[in-house]
Amino acid sequence: MSVGSTTACDPCAPRRAILFYTRYGGLYNETWRLQSATVSRTIIQQTYFIYGVTNWMDVEIAPQWLQNSSEGQSFSGFGGLPLQLGLQVLRGDSDSWPPDVRIWVQEILPTGRCNDLPLSTIGVEGTGGGSFATTLYGFYSSVTVRGFNAYGGGFGTDGRVDPGAVATLTVA
Questions:
Q1: How far is CA 145 from CA 114, 120, 150, 164, in A?
Q2: Least CB-packed of 31, 82, 145, 154 within 10 Å?
Q3: Distance (Å, whole) CA 163 – CA 100
Q4: What is the pLDDT of residue 137?
Q5: DSSP classification of residue 71
Q6: Which three-class secondary structure state does DSSP give residue 39?
Q7: What's the CA gap between 64 and 61, in Å, rounded?
Q8: Per-position b or e across 13-41, b if 16+ CB within 10 A of its CB
Q9: Which residue in 109, 90, 110, 169 sits closest to 135, CA to CA?
C-alpha cells in the first residue's frame, strides 16, 4: 500500500482530456507502519473517444500518456489502453422512481512498458501494469430528493443527488 495524493478532473465527462497527478512519498510495511520512500510523481493524460453504436450502446477508447519522475530523472510513454463497452440497461422516466442504469465493461490492454526497465532509471520508465484487466462498472443516474432522505437533506430540501458508482468488480 502506498501513501500519496491523487487529484483528477471530472472523470465522467465524455470527449475530454483528463489529467491525473499522483505523488508517492512512503509505503506501509507489514505492521502498517509508514516507511519513508523516494518521492516519485506521475502525471497521466487520458483522452476519451466515445462512439455511439446505437441509442443504448457505445464504445470507448481512452489512451493514456504518462510522465514519471523521481530524483531528477523522468520518462514519458504510453500506459495501458482501456477499451470500454457501455450498455444502457434501464432508462427511467424523469418523473418516475425507476433510475437510469448503465453498465460498462472495460478491458485494459497492456500497452505500457513494465518489463526490462533499466536499474539506473529507478523505475521511472515503467508506464504499465503488464497484464490484461477486465472490469465491470455499474453507474446509476441522479436521484430527486425532497425533505429528509437517505442522502441527508432536511426541511425544505428539494434537489438532485448523484450517487455515483455503486458497484465495481475487477477481474485481472
A1: 47, 56, 9, 15
A2: 31
A3: 12
A4: 64
A5: T
A6: strand
A7: 10
A8: eeeeebebebebebeeeeeeeeeeeeebb
A9: 169
**Amino acid 167: pLDDT:** 54
Residues of the chain falling short of pLDDT 70: 1-16, 119, 121-123, 129-131, 137-143, 148-153, 163-172
pLDDT for residue 1: 36
Number of neighbouring beta carbons within 10 Å of residue 68 = 23
How far apart CA 169 and CA 137 sit, in angstroms, is: 7
Cell of 3: 501513501
CA atoms within 13 A on the CB side of 127: 23
Q: What is the pTM of this model?
A: 0.60
What distance in Å separates the CA atoms of residue 64 and residue 79, rounded to the nearest whole number? 5
Domain boundaries, the chain: 2-171
Contact 157, 144 (CB under 8 A): no
